[in-house]
Amino acid sequence: MHDLTRCVQHPEVSQDGFRSLAVPTYRASTIIYEDGESFAARGERGFDGYTYGLHGTPTTRTLEAQLTALHNGVRTVLVPSGQMAVALVFLTFLLPGDHVLVPDSAYGPVRNVCRDYLAPRGIACTLYDPLIGAGIAELIQDRTRLVWVESPGSGTMEVQDIPAIVRAAKARGVLVGCDNTWCTPLLFKPLDHGCDFAAEALTKYVGGHSDLLLGSVTVRDMDLRQRMKEVLRSLGVGVSPDEVALALRGIETMGLRLAHVGRVSESFARRLQEHPLVEQVLHPCLPSCPGHAFWARDIKGSGGVFSIVLRPAAGTMLNPALTAMKVFAIGASWGGTRSLIAPMSVKGERTVKPWTQEGPVLRISIGLEQEEDLWADLERLLAALTPAGAVIAA
């Protein structure tokens, strides 16, 4: 064999006695076949087999199986982002003339895909009050094909009555999908409550280190998975095994991280309620948070993300006060080791029930820094937002 051939063809080495706790990262575009017959019959392998790197490797199959088990599902589909996880359900199961219901509290880009992509293609979207519960039955039309829920709501933290929504939807033969990113399957399992789709941004708590983009959709019905995979194949959408490897590493510590940030977020939420500059704390653990009773009934704990509404007087100094923070970083996303804080634009985005609060809204994501350092940074922020010599009425 010539040297150039040796450069291209790797030698086989023994793996006897080698066992690693780490999942191997299999990178592949081409999948090779043992013979011509197996290549000719590759279409018979289905989506659980290996035919081309775009459609999966043992690395991606491992994460899919792990998420499926956590959700009590039958299969999981991986996609490049959490937003794509939501969009995939919409693109697969909605056709021109169909109708979808989306909560008014949903993640902003979900509203955008309804307005900018679905609507021009003849697919109608109705935004609904996230606290509507069983009343959603009145909004379901003959052409409604999907009810989407996001609980708690992005930024404003409303917890939805998912069992009541599911009952109303199923009575009309309508699918239900849930963005479960805040909870993860450790706190809430949408499929166990009757949802057809459990979508998550693995970018957040599964990845856990702010260094990957990945999403997932888990189902209990193989036909739903088949249809989504067919769409992904047609569009040429796949995920990087390197991103998946990071998610496989992150998921091992997700339980410990989530327990920690949930405990700290609850503690901070209760303490911030007492500050005179804070108009309202939006955290599902608090009885004052919309949908708290559903959180107490259905959800097994807290994530690390919550929001606070400041009194209007705080608005004038907000940007320099945020810039001066020493422990919290200013940034979107959440679920990583670093604590984040960011202003939220709510008033102009709510259309069903007007947002009546006049003060700024800050979303807080708790990370893994020392709790006392985080609290001191929040106290510095609130002190900087208080006008000199002013007394803020409670």
Give an overview in words.
This protein is of the alpha/beta class and 394 residues long. 34% of the residues lie in helices and 15% in strands. It has 13 helices and twelve strands. The protein has helices spanning 3-8, 36-40, 58-71, 82-93, 108-118, 162-170, 184-187, 222-235, 241-251, 254-272, 292-298, 318-323, 371-385; strands spanning 75-79, 99-103, 124-128, 144-150, 175-179, 197-201, 215-219, 278-282, 305-310, 329-330, 340-344, 361-365. The strands form two sheets. Strands 1-7-6-5-4-2-3 form a seven-stranded mixed β-sheet, with helices on both faces. The chain has a five-stranded mixed β-sheet with strand order 8-9-12-11-10, with helices on one face. Helix 5 (108-118) links the parallel strand 2 and strand 3 (124-128). Helix 3 crosses helix 9 and helix 4 crosses helix 8. The longest helix is centred in the last third of the chain and has 19 residues, at 254-272. The protein is globular and about 80 Å long. It starts with a helix and ends in a 9-residue tail after the last helix. The model is unreliable at 389-394 (pLDDT under 50).
Strand order of the largest sheet: 1-7-6-5-4-2-3
How many angstroms does the end-to-end distance come to? 84 Å
Count of discrete alpha- or pi-helical segments spanning 4 or more residues = 13
Number of strands: 12
Biggest sheet statistics: 7 strands, mixed
Mean pLDDT over the residues: 94
DSSP strand content: 15-25%
Point out poorly predicted stretches.
389-394
Task: Please state the CA-atom Rg, rounded to the nearest Å.
Answer: 23 Å
Shape: globular
Helix content: 25-40%
| Derived structural class | alpha/beta
